[in-house]
Amino acid sequence: MRLAALSRRCALIAAAAFMLAPAGAIAEDWPKAKPIKVIVPFGVGSATDIIARVVMDEVGRQIGATVVTENRVGASGTIGANAVAKADPDGYTVLVHSSSHTVTPSTFSSLPYDPEKDLAGVLPLANIPIVVVANSKRGYKTLSDLVKAGLAKPGSLNFASAGAGSATHLAAERVKLSAKLEAAHVAFKGSSEALTEILADRIDYYCSPIDAAIELIKDGRVTALAVSSAKRATSLPDVPTTVEAGYPDSGYAFWIGAFLPRQTPDAIRTRLHAELVKAIGSPAIAKKFADLGAEPLTISPQEFDAMIKSEIASNAVVVKAAGVKVN
User: Fold this and answer.
1) Are 141 and 216 within one domain?
2) What is the DSSP string of 141-155?
3) What separation in angstroms does the CA of 188 have from each of 43, 178, 273?
4) Is the peptide bond before 31 cis (omega within 30 degrees of 0)?
5) Per-residue confidence at 116, pLDDT binned at 50, 70, 90?
6) pTM (2 d.p.)
7) Backbone angles phi, psi at 43, to 5 degrees
8) Contacts of 154 (CB under 8 A, 6+ apart)
9) Is residue 2 in a domain?
10) Structural domain span for residue 137
11) How confident is the model at residue 9 (pLDDT cuts 50, 70, 90)?
12) How far apart are CA 104 and CA 100, in angstroms?
């Protein structure tokens, strides 16, 4: 009992010392004190996981720090996000999340953290176009072909997502709303499972991150019908955007970005931002991004925060209009 009490007392003293330590002193030690833990709220091999590892490993080399990536999967990314929101704000726990971060406030009736108040944006690392794909055996050549088939038999189509409330889910809902299409949502754990079902011809279509589907598209096993980004993807220049295909307000920006606990000293947030910008600007990362179909996006932390706020509001409108089930 005495040891337990002493342990608790030491923990309280340590916590108090951290809170009382000048922010400059904490920032000055970063990143020398200990390894940097990067939490990814999605599975290994997901677009978010790949970008996180590629970029943060480069940051580790730049600053001479050990970077350890940990996948904390579940609840549409909220488990991993909550872990970082509740972590010590010392710069040693980083969240790399996707744009689904701005969807979950609308698809969950309550969250154990506040996406805006508890997490600070550092940098959106990359935009990754989402591509609408279908099994090539279906014979669809364009997004309109798919939509016409669905409108001819209302309720006959289904679509996959990498989880309810995920970016792939909301991208599909935007297309549905614009096309006035009825289609049943089937949620999976990630793109790998969703694409497996597309290949097995058990799912009609999937709004996939381009990096996950690009090889299947090149092999001719799935057909790229449209991309949901604001402009055509550099890796699929002949594939139109969903808006170009004739469906206004159907676009969806899928990005992957880095976050820190909100109370992290500004000096650390600024330093990490600079290192991330340097990393994604390097020739090695530029090539890897090109191979993945990813496009770098460099804005300030403050601009990223403003983007988050705006997207939370706009996604709430789409979730309500689409009648997406709230957890």
Assistant:
1) yes
2) -SHHHHHHHHHHSTT
3) 12, 24, 33
4) yes
5) very high
6) 0.83
7) -70, 165
8) 182
9) no
10) 130-227
11) low
12) 6
For the chain, what percent of residues have pLDDT higher than 90? 75
DSSP letter assigned to residue 92: S
Predicted confidence at residue 8, as pLDDT, reads: 52
Question: Is pLDDT of 86 > 70?
Answer: yes
- What type of residue sits at position 315? N
Count other C-beta atoms under 10 Å from residue 141's C-beta: 12
Beta-bridged to residue 133, according to DSSP, are: 206, 224
Residue 76 backbone class (left: φ over 0; alpha: ψ -120 to 50; beta: rest): left
The verdict on residue 58 lying in a domain is yes
Query: How many other CB atoms sit within 10 Å of the CB of residue 74?
Result: 13
**Domain annotation covers residue 139:** yes
Alpha helices in the chain (DSSP H): 2-20, 23-29, 47-63, 78-85, 104-107, 143-152, 167-179, 191-199, 210-218, 266-280, 283-292, 301-322
The average pLDDT across 42-46 equals: 85
As a dihedral over the C-alpha atoms of residue 282, residue 287, residue 293, residue 299, rounded to 10 degrees, the angle is 10
Give CA–CA dist 73/253, Å, rounded: 22
CA distance 190 to 117: 28
Q: Where does the pLDDT of residue 81 fall: very low under 50, low under 70, confident under 90, or very high at 90 and above?
A: very high
